[in-house]
Amino acid sequence: MLLKNRYVRTIMMSRMLLQLGIWVRNFAILLYVTDMTNNDPLYVSLISVAEFAPIFLFAIIGGTFADRWQPKRTMVWCDVLSALSVLAVLLVVMTGSWHALLVATFISAILSQFSQPSTMKLFKQHVPAEQLQGVMAMFQTMAAIFMVLGPVIGTFAYQRYGIVVSFSLMIVMFAGSALILSSLPRDEAEPVHGSRSFTRELKDGLRYVWSNKVLKTLAGTFAVAGLAVGLIQPLMLFVAVENLDRDKQFLQWLLMANGAAMLAGGGFIMGLSKKLKPQTLLAVGLFASTFGTAGLGWSESVVLTLLFQMLNGLFYPCIHIGINTMIMKNTEGAYIGRVGGVLTPMFMGMMVIGMSVAGTMKDGLSLFIVFAVSAVLFLLGALLLVPLMGERTGKKGNSVEGRPC
Hints:
mainly alpha
């Protein structure tokens, strides 16, 4: 049983609190900003840019430091600093400056780039290799649960109690996560880095990815998929408002449909993932996203739109489990942070570009055209994986485990 593993169980509890805090944050900021700007698409896009731009800018830096630092200590301090930053922003917002909300998102995103690779590092150290895919699937199921509950909780917290209570709840959640993580055993002694500089280790991470066929291919898939996601993520609000002629609160039902399908598909994909290669799972997920995304941009029917959202959600676990399993099986523990730090900017950088131009493209073209372009990009990402279909990831010949950099 995976939950018998103390590290899995403790990190799972921590991430449940973080997921709750993040969903409250996302909806409180989205609804508050749209209230203040009368649904201005530029400011809606800026929310996403503030959330994801730091991931592009700090992923490789955070990943490199995560490989140098002790993982438990890094995760605890990131959560503590997140709580303190939210408190500081809340005090500013209470004076009437709503633009400070973007700062809270910005800082939280930076800190996540140090915490997330540390989580993967702990899993690599304390979870048997044959259980890694199951752990990834379990965490995906938890994310799906919050895709269902998160929008409801976030919308309720803001509409019932306002921005101050919503941010106060975030502070409690981040602090609670830090407290839970502090119960983990002391970090294992890290190897002394000696004279090896940060820059040298960062370059080693880049060479490590470039020398591995699987990771290099995954980087290309990340780039096109990131652009695809970036184009549509800020515009989901307009699917509800324009295509379906509903108010902005209807967005929570679209996200809930997606999350419910993720939850329903999570168990099925978990069982299926034992029989399929991770690159096959990833390609299947991207193909499904191609059809689901095109349908979302085209549909003006509530029922059809919900069905397309469910299609995307049903196959999203394929993407999540496939990506994380490919990374974990093809990366040495000492390089986990840097590999994530190299690959994540491939996705997030293109995602930020997509989000930056999404509003302009929608105004200049149409909502459907933007979603159609995104669908084509998902298809391209799936096609890039075709050369890997006959490969056995993590095995001799494709893994660079033990290969000097």
